Structure formats: structure tokens, C-alpha cells
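Appendix B, record 7
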Amino acid sequence: MELTIKQTEALDFLEDATTREILYGGGAGGGKSVLGCYWVLKCLFKYPESRYLVARSRLTTLRQTTLNTLRYVARMQDIPADAFSYNESRGEILLRPTSSVIVLKPLQSRPSDPDFDELGSLEVTGAFIDECNQISLKAWNIVRSRIRYRLNDYNLIPKILGTCNPSRGYVYNRFYKPWKEGVLDEDKRFISSLVGDNPYISSHYKDSLKGLDSRSRDRLLYGSWEYDEDPSALMNYDKIIDMFSPREVKKDERYITADIARFGSDSTVICLWYGLMCESIKVMPRSGVDETSAIIRDMCAVHGVLLSHVICDEDGVGGGVVDTLRCKGFVNNSSPIMVRGKQQNFSNLKNQCYFLWADYVNRSMIRINVDDVRLKDRIIEEMQEIKAADITVAQRLSIVSKREMKENLGRSPDVADALMMRMYFELKDVGEKKTLEIFF
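C-alpha cells (predicted):
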């Protein structure tokens, strides 16, 4: 079996002594699954009694696609069918005569196992995740932490290979964007592969890709990672970037919005606003009621912010801050605010504010003053995860759940939540504002 030039390049990184994470992605037909299966089979023969994970988001899809590719690659390598012993109940394939094992796992988060505890006892020598854009960053990191089986025996380092088509999720921010900007970490590699890089694929396949809609054609034929946004995304990507452009926006009244940490991994985020310009953002680890209240009180004194213009997330610890300061409290699940005497079709206040926030961003009405590049990237990442939920299920307008956003981000969208609360004051002070016409 002959590999393409791009597959050979990726294989070199998979066999070196420095690269730990490889993303092989781009257009459809670039030989992504074939590469992963080839690498796993080669390692199983080269390192007897090793264990390699082959995973995908859903088990059904894994069996119907990736497993079939594995069998195809085995045939191309003249590996006899009786060399494999598939135990479907255990999700394992034993390879004879090396006694190496392929572990087949779905990596879709389930409500009964949001932290992937099922993988807790898993130990593998390496991992191949097909269509890795369909799993969460948390799942990726947990798999990475389980690559430790017999590494010392063969003088190996942990290796995880992910393959996917262009996506705007964590793979974009973790691999493609740093690669494009020339700042990708030394232990990570990104290899772009398109259908034109695969001389072994049917000539009809490329013609089929040309017949797709423009968005799909950009992604799957041309391998564009800068394709038009997910139709469920509330904010245009370019408009998100424009928030950080130096320009004048409305900045008369001053406000403070704060999302107070409730759990150990969450952050407390305090935003100072001059009108619709976020002048500064303070992100800090979870802190006590007294400390957080003191920080906000000092900010009010320095910047002349009235307590009636301060709002804090009232859930959990935030309720204590609201009681101490006697400021406004933001209750996420409270009823939407009536606009000009009319009820609004949102599931709760939080969703109402997020839809209005998205409207303001798309109208270039928000300005964020941030010098910290990491904080800026964090805001961009979180804003990209603000997507509309399926209204046929929810009945009322809402965004996707925080749990889903946390899975994709690998953290809670605390900064986005703190920024979003600025819309509370816009809703409470509707008057004759034409900016709220979206709700009618």
C-alpha cells in the first residue's frame, strides 16, 4: 500500500521523538482515516502487546466507518482476516500473533458520565481519534492523559493523532490558528491535506464535491478553515473580531457587570463599562464574598459607578455579593424582561440577554478594550460557542446549554457571561431605543 506525500509527512511526525499531538485535516478525500488506521496497524505489529485506542464520537459511526477503513487497510497490507479477533462486547480487537490490542471507544459526552469516568482505568500506547472535531476538548485531553501503556518498554513518547475536516471548534484554536500564525507549540503539528493531494481517489469524487453548496464546498473541497459561520452561531466571526478594533462607541453611563465563580475551576470575571465600551476586564480565581465585594466597591469609587449600575450573577456565591453590595442581581433562569409592555419569546433572562448581545455585536455597537492576547483569544473562543438551540425542541428562543459549551471549550464561558450581563441595563432602559426592534 502506497501513502500520499501528505500521509508520509504526517507519519514522520508520528514516529519522531518530539511530536505529541498531530492534527491531520483539511478537505474531504485527503486520506485521513486511512492514515490513522495505517499508523495504528503498523504500531501494533512493531510493538507486541501494545494497546492503541481508535475512537470517534459515536460507537455506531465508529463501527460503520473507521472500523471498515481499518479492515480495508489491513487487506491492502496483506494482513489475513483471521489475524483479528473482534470482541464486540468488550470493544476490543486482538491482533495475532503480536497479542496487541485495538481498543474501540465512543467519546461522546453523556449526561450519566460528563467527565468520561469510564475512561479512568484505560491505559493505551497511542491514540487515533477520527473526526476529532466532533468530540470535546475535555475528551481530547482525557484521552491524551491515558497514553502511558508500555511507553518505557519501547522508548516511546505519548502520541495522539486526530483527523477532521475544517471546523471552528477547539481544533481551529488549538492547531490551525497557531499554525497559520507560526506560533504552534513545538510538540504539536498540523498537516493540511486536500482531495488533490490524494492521487488514489476516484476522479468522480472531486466532481461530487464541486456540486456542494458554497459553504460545504469551501470546507470539503478547498479545505478552508475560514468558511462562513455555523448557521446556528449567533455572531458573525468578523463582527466578533471587530469588537477589539479601536473606534468610538457610545460610552456615557458607567457600569460594572460581574460573573461570580461558583465552582473550583470557574473564574470570577468583573467588567467595567463606559457605556457600550468594556474598558477593562478583571479575571481572577474563585474568591470569597468579602474580597469580591471589596474589589467591586473600590472600582465603583475610582470610576464613579453608581451601585444601581452594578449587576452580579446572583446564583451561588454571587448572591452573597449582591446582598453585601446591595446592587442588582442577575438570575439566569428568571423570566425575560417585557419590552414595551410585550412578553418576549425567550426561555429565560440569560437567553434574552445573549440574543440582544449578539444583535449588538453584529451591529458593531460593542467595543472591548483588551491588551492581553490570551484574554482576547479567550473571548473570541467563547463568543464562537454562543449558538442557538433547536427551537423545535426548546419552543422558546435559547442558546445551547452551558454544559455543551464547557465540553467544547474545556472550561466555563465565564467571560462571555460577564459581558452578556451588560444587556440587562439596555433591556431595563428601553425607552424609544430602535436597537431593540429585533424583539418585535
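Remarks on this record: Residues 59-76 form the longest helix (18 residues). Residues 381 and 409 are 7 Å apart (CA to CA).
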